[in-house]
Amino acid sequence: MTLQIFNTLSREKEVFTPLEDGKVKMYVCGPTVYNYIHIGNARPIIVFDTVRRYLTYRGFDVNFVSNFTDVDDKLIRAAHELELTVPEVAERFIGAYFDDVHQLNVRDANVHPRVTQDMDDIIAFIKALIEKGYAYESAGDVYFRTKEFKDYGKLSQQPLAELQHGIRVEANDRKEDQLDFTLWKAAKPGEISWESPWGAGRPGWHIECSAMARKYLGDTIDIHAGGQDLIFPHHEDEIAQSEALTGKTFAKYWMHNGYMNIDGEKMSKSLGNFITLHEVLEQHNANVVRFFMLSVHYRRPISYSEALLQDAENGLDRLRTAYQNVDHRLQVAEEDYTGTPEEDDWLEQLTELKTQFEDEMDDDFNTANAISVFYELAKRANIYLTNEQISITVLREFLGMMTLFADVLGFKLAVEASESGLSDEDIEALIEERIQARNERNFARSDEIRDMLKEKQIILEDTAQGTRWKRG
């Protein structure tokens, strides 16, 4: 199957054809770092990390850029409340961002640009828009002439006439037209600011992504992505600024993930259902959170609840258990235990499952259906392990396929030592001690070791091939 992406711009699935053969230029709008990111922010981070992983799996060289907004009104307020400077607030929460998303197995972008580090490029971008007649200075502010860009509204599919009628804007005497949006904000007394041709100030929100995408990826990029809430006005304004300046298409494909709901209601501070990712990760395994986020197609809304997280944990445990069963059987199997009559049939089944997995991911990155294929792979692995005679080749293929699927989706099948506090060597030593205790008929010590491991979520299973264990 050919890879297809649902393009917000056309509202259709389109065959993915990169601008340059074998290469993908991808920009994802990052967070404003005035606090810990919320669980809704985590969704695009996980979704588009998975998109990047699959594109890489498909053989593309992906240049992935995701920015930090490290100066704006929210950071200025946070700096005042925390009695810190704006750069200190940004540094604190950029560090917290990486701490949290690394737990989710999210890979760093090739570049994480920051507004404060790219100020010269932003100012140059605004200056060029003024020179072309698309922007104007007024009392130290700079605004974009929205009506000068004829295609304004094409991403959100809102004609200018409707916007003029329906958009709520505060009257601003400095604007030529109330639909014009801010490119540069004159500094208020005591605010952090930068010198510019229009006086001291700082950029508006929309201009930063246009300038940084152009700097690090060029005039036209393959994929621009973010949350559904960014379609208007943020991404609409990016298109206007960028295409007004260059006269070229800004992004070929626009991708947007659906909203996050909390217990069935849209997450918002006013409803009191605002949850940070940091809080969630203190209560739940990051692997489970990632699995949960991918269990629903990225364009659909997703509801966050404790019950649904528990369902995700149960589902992930099914996959982990199957993986550990295969891994254990492979470790204890004889190296020359191969050539069973059904070997070719099983290998053919595995090839078909790999094709199904790829077909689902090719269909607009349908991770929900790809996980269903993963469940089928685990089911067949468990069936295969009931056979008395097995093939090393088939076992290795099962293990390799599970590892491949998990790597594309970005979660881990092997339970890490940090989850129990015991290393593999510690567990093996305790199992050896338990075996010795049983041989010496010291059943009290044997049971004590089993119970102690159980408390650490280490599950023992006595089999014909010996005692096997897994992390729960």
TrEMBL record:
Where do the annotations place Zn(2+) binding? Answer: C29, C209, H234, E238
Q: What subcellular compartments does it reside in?
A: Cytoplasm
Instruction: List keywords of the entry alphabetically.
Output: Aminoacyl-tRNA synthetase, ATP-binding, Coiled coil, Cytoplasm, Ligase, Metal-binding, Nucleotide-binding, Protein biosynthesis, Zinc
Question: What GO cellular component is one of the record's annotations?
Answer: cytosol
The main location class comes to cytoplasm
* Reactions performed catalytically: tRNA(Cys) + L-cysteine + ATP = L-cysteinyl-tRNA(Cys) + AMP + diphosphate
User: Where does the motif 'HIGH' region lie?
Assistant: 31-41
How is its cofactor bound, per UniProt?
Binds 1 zinc ion per subunit.
Q: Which InterPro entries match?
A: Cys-tRNA-ligase, Cys-tRNA-synt_Ia_DALR, Cys-tRNA/MSH_ligase, Rossmann-like_a/b/a_fold, tRNA-synt_1_cat_dom, tRNAsynth_Ia_anticodon-bd
* E.C. designation(s): 6.1.1.16
Q: Which cofactor does it need?
A: Zn(2+)
Q: Where does the Cysteinyl-tRNA synthetase class Ia DALR domain start and stop, copy by copy?
A: 356-421
Q: What are its GO biological-process terms? A: cysteinyl-tRNA aminoacylation
* Known partners and oligomeric status: Monomer.
Similarity section: Belongs to the class-I aminoacyl-tRNA synthetase family.
Mind telling me what this protein is named? Cysteine--tRNA ligase
Whose protein is this, by species? Listeria booriae
Gene, per the UniProt record? cysS
